Please model this.
Amino acid sequence: MTSSQQTSDFEDAIKYVIKVKREFADRPHIYNNFLEILEFFDSQDKFDANDFILRAADVFQGKNKTLILGLNPFLPDGYKIEIHGSGALYYSMPSCHHLTPIYRMKVETAPAA
Model:
């Protein structure tokens, strides 16, 4: 990874954290829970992407799907969070050839205009 790519990734991460903070400005406990998850995984010797996905999805449960999908760039290669037509969340990982449900959680969608 080049220095400019690392800078870009860092800037994207900061923008994402600011977006989460703005989204939950009226519910700071959700934002603080998210920060705790980031700090916990940052302090680990080995990053457990499965656990990270499940914990982050739990914090965002029923919330803005853009925020949940916004985690994708920060996941290790081969991991991806997807929302299917039913609104249920799934993630894929490199060691499996199927999608794993994330609590079969449905996210809020904007009402039709």
